[in-house]
Amino acid sequence: MTNTWQDIKNTDLVVVMGGNAAEAHPCGFKWVIEAKANRGAKLVVVDPRYTRTASVSDFYCPIRPGTDIAFLGGVINYLLANDKIQHEYVKAFTNASYLIKPEFGWNEGLFTGYDETKRGYDTSSWDYQLGEDGFAKIDDTLQDPQCVYQLMKKHFAVYTPEMVERICGSPKDKFLKVAEMMSECSTPTKTMTSLYALGWTQHSKGAQNIRGMAMIQLLLGNIGVRGGGMQALRGHSNIQGLTDLGLMSNLIPGYLNMPTDKEKDLGAYMSTRGFKPLRPGQTSYWQNYKKFFVSFQKSMWGDAAKVENDWAYDWLPKLDVTYDVLRAFDLMANGKMNGYFCQGFNPLMTFPDRGKITKALSKLKFLVTMDPLETETSRFWENHGEYNEVKSADIQTEVFQLPTSCFAEDEGSLVNSSRWLQWHWPAVKPPGEAKLDTEIMAQIYLRLKAMYQEEGGKLPDPIVNLRWPYANPEDPTPEELAKEMNGAALADVTDPTDPTKILVAKGKQLDTFAQLKDDGSTFSFCWIYAGCFTESGNQMARRDVSDPGDAGLAPKWAWAWPVNRRILYNRASSDVNGKPWDPSRKLVYWTGEKWGGFDVPDYGPTIRPEQSVGPFIMNPEGVARLFSRGMMRDGPFPSHYEPFESPVANVIAPKIRGNPAARIFKDDLVALGTPDKYPYVATSYRLTEHFHQWTKHVWVNAVLQPEFFVEISEQLAKEKGIDKGGWVRVWSNRGSVKAKAVVTKRIKPLMVDGKPVHVVGIPQHWGFMGKTKKGFHPNSLTPFVGDANIETPEYKAFLVNIEAIASGPVA
Ligand SMILES: Nc1nc2c(c(=O)[nH]1)N[C@H]1C(S)=C(S)[C@@H](COP(=O)(O)OP(=O)(O)OC[C@H]3O[C@@H](n4cnc5c(=O)[nH]c(N)nc54)[C@H](O)[C@@H]3O)O[C@H]1N2
Ligand SMILES: Nc1nc2c(c(=O)[nH]1)N[C@H]1C(S)=C(S)[C@@H](COP(=O)(O)OP(=O)(O)OC[C@H]3O[C@@H](n4cnc5c(=O)[nH]c(N)nc54)[C@H](O)[C@@H]3O)O[C@H]1N2
Ligand SMILES: [Mo]
């Protein structure tokens, strides 16, 4: 989230699109109700189904799964065509005026630089024109045909209201109503907030869905302001922490990236991470990259990371390709990965194409699960259901189950959607033989280290030299680990302007990442967390609810990264002169001497407005990007692509199937189904009564939602002779499931390009373990396809067929 949960109460318009917050985030959703009750805010829902969120909305618009970019593109076109943008904001704080290279272009659904054999782009033309001074060229009048504003106008012109209706099946008048409601928020005193989650990410162009809305929010002047922003409603309680700490295969903590094979030494690695400002006077915060990186290396290897060995650069793995989870399972399925540690993950249920996952797990020599529950994954060799199964007798995989504690039994921090690190304490002791994950990992590490010390090995250094400074090496404490994430001084850190002044004495915890050094005198495992555990104690354990100005920030409750800033890009809440856009919703403003207000400002409190430093300090140009400069793998602007399995061709680029840069392997392309055999669009989602696959182990939840079902419209039920509550078989090109049919008015057929499209809704909480009745998961059916940028699987739009059957799943 750019803002906080409570800040939702400050908004005028809540748009829930690509999520179902009332169902999946019921506690946070109370702030939407607050906004409605206290400010008269309106709630708009755009979803293929009339959801629990829609049931309390002011306006609901249906949409075909996987077509949000056409809808959002339609809104962008509407805002530009009707001149409903916040001009001053767009000019000052975005790259609308930046000139793009003349060789950049867009033709028949592809941007320049596409290479079909690589299924990817050379993105070099998606860039600014640079002047001789090295700065990006701009045209303040926004008239140059190569400026981002004009290119954007051209790119989105195709998404007329008629086109939106043709692609999305959203009736034109309903689309126009939503566009009009959003456009009202282009005035400086009206704001809109966007709440989204997996309805947007789980597509082969998921990241571009989010960019589409971010562009709208920038055009409306809604980023960095109270009641505005982009709210990624995160999933598991600590999934924000997962990405922060670099658990993605291409990241290291704090959103630094893993070196690639080509970057042979630190010099090569740093040469593309210079982040020279692209406009005069910009801060370009990533210029501190080396400080964060060296401090990370010091936290990993302590004294063994030194200037002579490039701070142990060689000990980091180097990527040849991205090792996302799809690729990992593909490697397993092809016999190229033969051991697997599966910690807190139940992929047999939750990863796409169960047939492929089963095949993958069957090829392993060993599988270790670390989980408080006995998961389906740990019993993958039992064949339940109809899919491309492997015979149990042919499986050689040895399975080890290591019982762990769960969140209620351990101490530590969870990072929530608001980027708050909140400390929590154990309620009970883990039962039986269950151990804390940290203890298990420490045990494994110490044994590995002993083996390397005794037997040598190809590269023992990174393991034997790992810094391991815990009082009990066998069981590090949460406090020790948290302090390490924050970081400390390894030598006295002095003031650069006055070396006699000691800012942090040797051995003391750091207060902020601004104190980090690239000379080895500091360490911090995750630079964005610096400040969470200081000499004044554990900031994450703070529980002070005070909220100055009733701003919805509660700055002394827990601790937010970065530097306890509650709203990102908050400098943009004031105009170029530092005056709040909306005096009734002040956030950060220029007092005449410094930046004051309710939040920690984006940059140095004494940087004067006339210095024109942009609020988007992580970009070397200081402004936000309407045109994403080379960062996205699948295009600088979002554009509509059909899901890989779709009932219709792409009307904008008929020859293109799916996002041309999406993650898909050859075998999985072959496994895709076509609309002649699978005419219905399926989508999958969650229910409040269950949490994924865990709560089916609990009687109370099992009683609330005992049995697997699918949801279909009354029209489809009639067409297929399916009774309310009757049994159905639903199948895709990859598998088949049996379920009870819920026939509902909440799903309606959509008219897409002149023909009706039916949607089959498939909730996802059942399996063959636990207290609920035995059931199946949509992932027996889903395709093994992922987003182009972050490889999130396309769970939300695929093709199925359905028929009534006489009996359901026993056996
Ligand atoms: N009770 C409960 N709460 C949970 C969870 C749980 O299992 N149980 N899981 C947690 C986790 S890990 C996550 S990630 C979050 C997920 O939170 P959400 O993303 O909100 O949950 P979903 O139910 O997966 O999907 C949300 C909605 O997306 C809609 N949708 C499907 N396809 C499309 C599309 O193409 N466009 C649009 N606009 N909408 C579409 C679906 O109809 C559904 O209503 O929930 C978290 N909260
Ligand atoms: N078709 C379809 N598939 C989906 C989705 C969808 O919308 N549609 N949603 C996707 C999303 S957003 C998500 S997040 C995934 C979820 O996928 P998973 O993460 O595989 O699902 P969970 O059931 O939450 O599994 C987490 C496991 O962690 C265990 N656990 C809990 N606490 C601890 C602990 O402290 N330590 C350890 N070691 N284990 C612990 C739980 O018992 C559980 O078995 O599913 C994805 N799959
Ligand atoms: Mo999730």
UniProtKB/TrEMBL annotation:
Cell compartment(s), UniProt: Periplasm
Keyword Metal-binding found: yes
GO biological process terms on file: anaerobic respiration
Keywords: 4Fe-4S, Iron, Iron-sulfur, Metal-binding, Oxidoreductase, Periplasm, Selenocysteine, Signal
Domain Molybdopterin oxidoreductase: 1-444
A molecular function (GO) term: formate dehydrogenase (NAD+) activity
One Gene Ontology CC term in the entry: periplasmic space
Main location class: periplasm
InterPro entries: Asp_de-COase-like_dom_sf, Formate-DH-alph_fdnG, MoPterin_dinucl-bd_dom, Mopterin_OxRdtase
Domain Molybdopterin dinucleotide-binding, chain residue ranges per copy: 682-798
Cofactor: [4Fe-4S] cluster
Any one Pfam family match given in the protein's UniProt record, by short name: Molydop_binding
PANTHER family: FORMATE DEHYDROGENASE-O MAJOR SUBUNIT (PTHR43598:SF1), TUNGSTEN-CONTAINING FORMYLMETHANOFURAN DEHYDROGENASE 2 SUBUNIT B (PTHR43598)
Family stated for the protein in its record: Belongs to the prokaryotic molybdopterin-containing oxidoreductase family.
Protein name from the UniProt record: Formate dehydrogenase-N subunit alpha
Species of origin: Hansschlegelia quercus
Gene for this chain: fdnG
